[in-house]
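Hello,

I think I submitted the NAP job twice by accident. Can you confirm which output corresponds to this input? Input:
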Amino acid sequence: MTKPRALITGITGQDGSYLAEFLLSQGYEVVGLVRRSSMVSFERIAHLQDKVTIVSGDLLDEASLIEALGQHRPTEVYNLAAQSFVQTSFGQPVLTGETTALGVTRLLDAIRIVDPAIRFYQASSSEMFGKVREVPQCETTPFHPRSPYGVAKVYGHWITVNYRESYNLHASSGILFNHESPRRGLEFVTRKITHGVASIYLGRQDTLRLGNLDSMRDWGFAGDYVKAMWLMLQQDEPDDYVVCTGETHSVREFCELAFGHLNMNYKDYVQIDKAFFRPAEVDLLVGDPKKAKKILDWHTEVSFADLVSMMVDADLELLQGKLKGLS
Ligand code: NAP
Ligand code: F7E
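Support: Only one job matched these inputs. Its output is below.
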């Protein structure tokens, strides 16, 4: 029997690396679409480099997407590539729209042209709920995005639904709430905190500057969430699913646990810096995972407290390794 073949855009990102590992463990051939840069950014997939095939392409360039699909003929495509940092989307709204919104159309159109039988996953986001209309948020909750990133994701979501309805594509959209890991980018608040905690503990930093400590998020572990992406594409019918833990915690609570893990009090180190506040904020996100649990039989394995400890421990190990390298 021939192996199923998946193409992942954004394979060098947090989710791309976990999804590649997961699909390889399921017997897939994995092809990763990577954009050209003057420095390779393969840190998160360095351990997979002899197991995955890399193809050059960019969500800004439809011809490169058509070429990649035609050359590798995947059975499934996971669109994880995006300008994914909300704060940056306020400073670079047009680039965010080109990549995170129109990039989805380019990829869907490439699929329609090359092979409409390809199953497609779109990485939608809880940021689409923004100024929330109900608590908790589910698949039928209306969208009210609060950032250019959220607006772009709403476009990406609806163009996925539109291609499903117009061209009968097996296209599903996962509305994922925040998911984190030791591979999270350093600019996102969870990793900024755990890296800061490890750095302060080792005496390399005195304070940690943060923005709104009262923001609430539904945080899960990225390794759990990539399984939901795959499960969506194994269903007979394409559909949209909210993927979340159903719990919400504040940034302050994250700080308490992260500093507490190394017996420190966050109040002694955290300073509020207005530079990290946003022009418009999403204050309270918490999802309802009922549909994903029922239809996909999906559930989380890592708790909030274990996620925080895992990330602090990983950053401590990382920084200790770097210090050893210097000595
Ligand atoms: P991430 O770590 O920021 O990774 C983004 C990926 O997109 C990187 O591999 C990046 O490549 C790639 N990329 C950016 N612009 C591109 C372009 N023009 N063409 C091709 N590739 C491009 O994001 P993540 O946390 O893994 O998230 C994965 C997806 O899920 C994103 O779409 C994000 O918006 C969405 N999402 C994430 C969360 C979350 O909590 N993590 C929640 C909901 C939705 P480089 O390495 O070259 O920069
Ligand atoms: O912010 C507050 C900030 O940047 C979380 C992306 O993966 O999840 C992510 O977007 C909260 C916000 O993630 C700092 O104001 C306080 O309320 O970690 P974040 P995000 O904006 O929720 C969604 C679901 C996605 O789809 C996105 O791609 O934390 N906050 N102080 C801070 N945030 C940051 N970054 N830095 C601070 O110093």
